[in-house]
């Protein structure tokens, strides 16, 4: 069997060849990857590890927290606090940012994460994931305490993004802005080994992912887009489309990276600003990965990575994947008022 490069080796080679990976960022990626290993281990124990079920409390988003949401959040905070690579962290599970305690050295990076994406799948044994995004603290923050505003940078400024997927295999998919690489956890030796990359998503696969039960939230444009596709070969497009929806964006995005297709979670047309997914730690990192793999990501009109965030937990409509399909969604949308 061929010996595939480990994540550590890949990172060291990136540091040497591309000169795009400062030592602090390498430490950050390795630390996140190590925490994801631990999270994956806890998830795989399931009921035996007494980690399933809810806590009976809500997070800042008003969502009931699963035990694993909190465990994974703590694991990521603990792993990243002391290494000296971070200035602060932010998470889907915390109301505001988490500063690095004064007893530890501070670095120049900001880490954002969704500790468990697809939480509703945890208790039924389906794939879930961890999504992360890395920004640099702005220069004006030097010498003072980091604030929430320092995090509000457009996605185009991300220096790294990725996700771990806890499914049939435990995977880590990563971009440092120089392509997308997939690593599979080799459980026997505890190492991440490269299994794909640089990854280019296939274009032209007629497969879309949308929660059809949210039909009442769609604009007429989104409804038309979906109706044309479910009409199949008898419809205006003359093509059969397939539909997949896992309830875990990580799993849907992973399928799209490997097999092609498009993912849609449009904003709720009935109320401005109402949407399901979060810009800073869901849409932005996934948009960076998808663009790096040759796809596109918009809020149905505007490129996700160009959006200027206005708050940490801001929600946004999201359409990502196949370039032609993302463009087709923009075409059926009504022009902005
Ligand atoms: P979460 O991070 O709280 O789990 O929420 C995000 C998830 C995505 O993974 C997924 O695409 C979406 O919510 C599923 O929403 P729905 O319940 O409408 O199917
Ligand atoms: Mg999520």
TrEMBL record:
It is an enzyme of class 3 (hydrolase). It comes from Novosphingobium umbonatum. Its main location: cytoplasm. This is Fructose-1,6-bisphosphatase class 1. NCBIfam families: PRK09293.1-3. Pathway: Carbohydrate biosynthesis. Pfam families: FBPase, FBPase_C. Belongs to the FBPase class 1 family. The keyword Cytoplasm applies. It catalyses: beta-D-fructose 1,6-bisphosphate + H2O = beta-D-fructose 6-phosphate + phosphate. Substrate binds at residues 117-120, 211. Binds 2 magnesium ions per subunit. Its cofactor is Mg(2+). One of its GO terms (biological process) is fructose 1,6-bisphosphate metabolic process. GO terms for cellular component: cytosol. Mg(2+) 2 binds at residues 114, 117, 282. Coiled coil: none annotated. It is found in: Cytoplasm. Residues 6-195 form the Fructose-1-6-bisphosphatase class I N-terminal domain. Its EC number is 3.1.3.11. GO terms for molecular function: fructose 1,6-bisphosphate 1-phosphatase activity; magnesium ion binding. Mg(2+) 1 binds at residues 92, 114, 116. Residues 201-333 form the Fructose-1-6-bisphosphatase class 1 C-terminal domain. InterPro entries: FBPase_C_dom (IPR044015), FBPase_class-1 (IPR000146), FBPase_N (IPR033391), FBPtase (IPR028343). Homotetramer. Keywords: Carbohydrate metabolism, Cytoplasm, Hydrolase, Magnesium, Metal-binding. CDD domains: FBPase.
């Amino acid at each position: 069997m061929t010996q595939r490069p480990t994540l550590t080796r890949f990172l060291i080679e990136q540091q040497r060849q591309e000169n795009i990976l400062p030592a602090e960022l390498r430490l950050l990626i390795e630390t996140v990857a190590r925490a994801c290993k631990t999270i994956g281990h806890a998830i795989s124990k399931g009921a035996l590890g007494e980690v399933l079920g809810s806590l009976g409390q809500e997070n800042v988003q008003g969502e009931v927290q699963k035990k694993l949401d909190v465990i994974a959040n703590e694991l990521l905070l603990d792993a990243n606090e002391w290494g000296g690579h971070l200035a602060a962290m932010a998470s889907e599970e915390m109301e505001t940012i988490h500063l690095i305690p004064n007893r530890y050295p501070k670095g120049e990076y900001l880490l954002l994460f969704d500790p468990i994406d697809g939480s509703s799948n945890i208790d039924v044994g389906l794939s879930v994931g961890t999504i992360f995004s890395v920004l640099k603290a702005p220069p004006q923050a030097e010498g003072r305490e980091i604030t929430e505003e320092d995090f509000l940078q457009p996605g185009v400024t991300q220096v790294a993004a990725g996700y771990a997927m806890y499914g049939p295999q435990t995977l880590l998919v990563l971009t440092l802005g120089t392509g997308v690489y997939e690593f599979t956890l080799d459980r026997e030796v505890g190492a991440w080994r490269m299994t794909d990359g640089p990854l280019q998503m296939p274009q032209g696969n007629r497969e879309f992912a949308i929660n059809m039960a949210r039909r009442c939230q769609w604009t007429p444009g989104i409804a038309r887009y979906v109706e044309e596709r479910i009409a199949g070969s008898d419809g205006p497009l003359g093509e059969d489309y397939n539909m997949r929806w896992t309830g875990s964006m990580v799993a849907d995005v992973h399928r799209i990276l490997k097999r092609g297709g498009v993912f849609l979670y449009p904003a709720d047309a009935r109320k401005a600003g109402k949407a399901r997914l979060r810009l800073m730690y869901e849409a932005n990192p996934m948009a960076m990965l998808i663009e790096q793999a040759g796809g596109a990501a918009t809020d149905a009109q505007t490129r996700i990575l160009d959006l200027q965030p206005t708050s940490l937990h801001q929600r946004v409509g999201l359409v990502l994947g196949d370039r032609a399909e993302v463009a087709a969604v923009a075409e059926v949308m009504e022009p902005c008022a």
